Amino acid sequence: MFSDQAPYRELYDQILDYDGAGLHHDVLRPWLDRNGAERRWLDEIRARRGSPVPPVTAEESCRLYALSRIIDLLQLSFAPPAPEPRWTIAAVSAKDFVEFADALGLERIDQTAFHPFYHEIVTVDAEPNENATPRLVDAYWPGLMLGPLLLSRTGCRVAAGRRHIMKEVAETSTLHWAYARNNRPATDLSAGWGSNSQWRTAFRRDYAIDGELRYNVDARENPGGAGEALDPAERLELLRHRCFIISPTPSGDLWPYDLSHVEHA
User: How far apart are CA 67 and CA 61, in angstroms?
Assistant: First the structure.
């Protein structure tokens, strides 16, 4: 673990250990008061420019990953209840979550048309017309941006025909680049490492910049490249949605982390 991840590791442990009814008041707000340097650092990351992707160091990437873990834990409060939840932590209200994000200078995603860059499929309403294109029905939690950098997608309920989204696939396939979910299998690059080593996980960076959507910018492949397990369409589906939405291919043992893609916004 890098030393500048320590504030997030502290907060992570406090969230897991807390058993009261006021997580925001008792844990989140005092942490924010003690760690004003995190807001200043995030402001600097937001303002950073590149050609076109801004650079970050390996240490900064891991620091962003540490923040993403906190966001994942807090968003569990808003997902549909699971029969056997893996994570049982104190809930926060929508107002508390927004206050926490605002205090760190994070912007909420306001995209009203479904797009996998901005939206994570949580539940699906199957449309009778199998050709019906996906549309947003409701949002479970707000997504967050840091300027052009995507931090967390909006968790949403969508309606669609089976040619675009299959309910039984999209709701249950393994979600990659995700640390904590109760409604489905989730995994990221920290899986299998020790309690300290796993914090040295790089953050997946996606950017909406210069009229383009750039997925997983630190990877070296593209989804149309050769691959033994998946065809190009499956690779692109897995990269853009971070899970399968129509492919019946088993998704638990795949390695999509080297895939990247650029498309017009």
Answer: 10
Q: Provide the greatest CA pair distance for the chain.
A: 53
The answer on pLDDT for 169 being more than 90 is: yes
Query: In percent, how much of the chain has pLDDT > 70?
Result: 97
Q: What confidence score (pLDDT) does residue 1 get?
A: 80
211-238 mean pLDDT: 85
CB-hemisphere CA count at 13 Å for 36?
Answer: 1
Cite the DSSP H helix spans in 117-211.
167-170
User: Residue 88 phi/psi, 5° resolution?
Assistant: -130, 90
For 180, residues 6+ apart whose C-beta sits below 8 A from its C-beta are 69, 72, 73, 76, 86, 87, 186
Report how far apart the first and last C-alpha atoms of the chain are (Å, whole number). Answer: 35
* Contact (Cβ atoms closer than 8 angstroms) between residue 99 and residue 33: no
pLDDT at 228 over 80: no
Mean pLDDT for the chain overall: 95
φ, ψ at 130 (rounded to 5°): -65, -15
Among the listed residues 169, 152, 151, the one whose alpha carbon sits nearest the alpha carbon of residue 160:
169
Q: Are 177 and 188 in contact (CB under 8 A)?
A: yes
Provide the residue count of the chain: 265
Coil vs helix vs strand at 119 = strand
